[in-house]
Amino acid sequence: MLNNQGRPSRPDTAAASEAATFTGNKALQIEEGLLFEIGQREVTGIDLPEAPVAKSRLGNHGRKTEIGLPGLSEPETMRHYVRLSRQNHAIDLGLYPLGSCTMKHNPRLNERMARLPGFADIHPLQPASTVKGAVDLMADLSHWLLEMTGMETVALSPKAGAHGELCGMVAIRAAIEARGETRGSVLVPESAHGTNPATAALLGYKVIPVPARADGTVDPAAVKERLSSDVAAIMLTNPNTCGLFERDVVEIAEAVHAAGAFFYGDGANFNAIVGKVRPGDLGVDAMHINLHKTFSTPHGGGGPGAGPVVLSKALAPFAPLPFLRRGEGGPVLVETAEATQDGERPFGRLTAFHGQMGMYTRALAYMLSHGADGLKQASEDAVLNANYVRARLSDLFHAPYGDRPCMHEALFDDHSFEGTEITTLDFAKALIDEGYHPMTMYFPLVVHGAMLIEPTESESRASLDLFIAAMRDLMMRAKAGEVEHFRAAPRFAPRRRLDETRAARQPKLAWSEPAPAAAAE
Ligand SMILES: *Cc1c(COP(=O)(O)O)cnc(C)c1O
């Protein structure tokens, strides 16, 4: 209801009056300010002894204004972070069907292992002789990764998948330069993750897109047409981001090698094929493994991750520093160019130190607790679960590449909403109200209004059935024309529809003092 000046005279939507509690809280869903808004300046939750007066050695550079840190009591601090943790979805709260990102359960055993002081409390500058156990663990992890991939060596230090792509592509460039050649372009299928063309472009390569066939896979003929003596590599994901296995991968690899180019395998979807097929046998020369996707590790919220890169015989000499050499008395950590031997030609160094020890520990704990048979079963269960979701939804949802089996993720598109006014975005927002994180939306880009669902092996039949029932219920509402239900969603989230584009384009990264509570009002 608007007054005669066009301003609302009272909350005029059901949602606004619903939200009107004195505190702004909705039962246990609590409004939480920033630390700087709820804390008191120059108050501290702990007692510190008065600092001894010492002569300042800072000269002119000493702080002249108050530092302005907020202070809270210990319970207030605890509550602040616990409340914030409840405002986001987590795999520990419920099914997290984000395709391509593989959000799987992280067994608590991994956390116990990663917190052992011998792994958690070491420093990268400690002499290698004092961290022998950690070096052995890195060597064991390398052994497992090489067994599973059928490759020659592994560069452990990259910190994520995208960083691993950079590592592998720099190794490829180094190998090409070592033969006295330069090559200027890289083939990237259109369904690729954005990090593939970004990596190639970052290294100055021209990106040549390879279109997908009608069935969603790469046509070897399309690759051959684009190969030339200028092509350094193809970057190919298998299974691809449509959740489909690239059947012609061997033919593609042979054509790429015949043209003197290399095959970079994007291993983000390795969790679908561990124990079933070794990328080395498919002709892959370099492949990153997102430890945080395939071998557990919590990675919601942006980190931390680890992206070790396995390398073929042709690329192995170029692995970056630091690396592990198999020595007679056990693994040797090679940290400098001076310590290299004949045949070792590291392209340089990607990270200051050795990579993410905590991730290595979690990944190895995951591997050892599953065993070779268990890892294979995890892949099979992940594929089975995705196909169960696909089959139980395929009468109501439209699959872009037809109603046929998928690998670890099920893909639908927005033909599903034909005849309704609902978009993929509306549908995803409604899923939030049902207590689910939305599936991956609008990716892969080759599929219009894509909805990519990856349940992983973590989910039981019962939890999949509930998710499927929620998806089906929402689709029935969409088809019944309940547009308002979708437009208003999410109604139960701490925040409603945000302007995500503006938040990304004009992020407010600095805290500023809130205006004094509008006294004038
Ligand atoms: C996640 C992903 C990447 C990037 O990995 P990060 O660890 O997020 O850097 C690359 N390719 C594909 C297909 C992915 O799913």
From TrEMBL:
Domain called Aminotransferase class V: residue spans: 180-300
Keyword set includes Oxidoreductase: yes
EC assignment: 1.4.4.2
Reactions listed under catalytic activity: N(6)-[(R)-lipoyl]-L-lysyl-[glycine-cleavage complex H protein] + glycine + H(+) = N(6)-[(R)-S(8)-aminomethyldihydrolipoyl]-L-lysyl-[glycine-cleavage complex H protein] + CO2
Region of interest called Disordered, as start-end residue ranges on this chain: 497-521
Keyword annotations: Oxidoreductase, Pyridoxal phosphate
Any single Gene Ontology cellular-component annotation: glycine cleavage complex
UniProt GO BP: glycine decarboxylation via glycine cleavage system
InterPro entries the UniProt entry points to: Aminotrans_V_dom, GDC-P_C, GDC_P, PyrdxlP-dep_Trfase, PyrdxlP-dep_Trfase_major, PyrdxlP-dep_Trfase_small
GO molecular function: glycine binding; glycine dehydrogenase (decarboxylating) activity; pyridoxal phosphate binding
Residue ranges of the TM segments: none
N-terminal signal peptide: none
A Pfam family: GcvP2_C
Residues in Glycine dehydrogenase C-terminal domain copies: 378-476
Cited function: The glycine cleavage system catalyzes the degradation of glycine. The P protein binds the alpha-amino group of glycine through its pyridoxal phosphate cofactor; CO(2) is released and the remaining methylamine moiety is then transferred to the lipoamide cofactor of the H protein.
Protein name: glycine dehydrogenase (aminomethyl-transferring)
Protein source organism: Segnochrobactrum spirostomi
The organism's taxonomic lineage, starting at the top: Bacteria, Pseudomonadati, Pseudomonadota, Alphaproteobacteria, Hyphomicrobiales
